[in-house]
Amino acid sequence: xxxxxxxxxxxxxxxxxxxxxxxxxxxxxxxxxxxxxxxxxxxxxxxxxxxxxxxxxxxxxxxxxxxxxxxxxxxxxxxxxxxxxxxxxxxxxxxxxxxxxxxxxxxxxxxxxxxxxxxxxxxxxxxxxxxxxxxxxxxxxxxxxxxxxxxxxxxxxxxxxxxxxxxxxxxxxxxxxxxxxxxxxxxxxxxxxxxxxxxxxxxxxxxxxxxxxxxxxxxxxxxxxx
Length: 226
Ligand code: ADP
Ligand code: ADP
What we know:
Blueprint: E1 2-15, E2 18-31, E3 35-39, H1 46-54, E4 61-66, E5 69-70, E6 78-81, H2 93-97, H3 99-103, H4 108-121, H5 137-149, E7 155-159, H6 167-183, E8 187-191, H7 195-201, E9 204-209, E10 214-220
Parallel strand pairs: 3-8, 3-9, 6-7, 7-8
Antiparallel strand pairs: 1-2, 1-4, 4-5, 9-10
Bound molecules: adenosine-5'-diphosphate (ADP) (2 copies).
Domain ABC transporter: 4-226
InterPro entries: AAA+_ATPase, ABC_transporter-like_ATP-bd, ABC_transporter-like_CS, ABC_transporter_ATP-bind, P-loop_NTPase
Family: Belongs to the ABC transporter superfamily.
């Protein structure tokens, strides 16, 4: 089944230098359970496209449909991971993971077990009561992945989630992501500058580019994930 449908989606920013056409006329579908990587040079509109899919950036033109319904704003069923782990420094690791639960006023008790399990999965059980400042960059990013997964969102969007990490941690995170997908497949949108990572993790690779920027290439990876 289709999870997301984009119909002639465009974005033009207004800046002091005049209008910037960041994304031009993208029409495509993303299937339920697909892991889609987005590649392309800096400034080609990858983040803008992802933020429009997540409802965090307004759309200048076009329509985004999620499971048959037109969507406009931010939604609970979208998990987000960014390049830098934006953890709250005054909260413990555990409370950072549970932060979406608190914001959405859901019962903490029902999610505590899942928070413990997620932190165990990324090897951070011993650090639940630490503050973010006591962790390395890679560990903080693992916490932000747990936070994105705590509500078990059917749609996970990641904007260069591993680019601030060293090569070894990055490989570990790739394996962790594969593991998450094996245990609980979901729809993924993954921005990366690494072709290797895109091919390793995804079912499909989109390449953006050109002026104004569009999706110029759309490749299915037939052998899929291991
Ligand atoms: P990246 O290549 O890592 O996506 P960018 O430089 O394209 O980084 O954008 C980084 C952030 O700065 C984005 O959140 C974007 O909204 C903002 N940004 C980028 N270009 C401009 C601009 N010309 N004016 C205002 N904000 C901008
Ligand atoms: P990418 O993620 O591929 O690096 P972005 O989506 O961040 O690309 O940016 C696409 C284009 O839009 C760039 O030219 C960037 O400078 C511009 N841009 C991004 N955010 C803003 C903003 N808030 N205001 C003005 N221009 C922006």
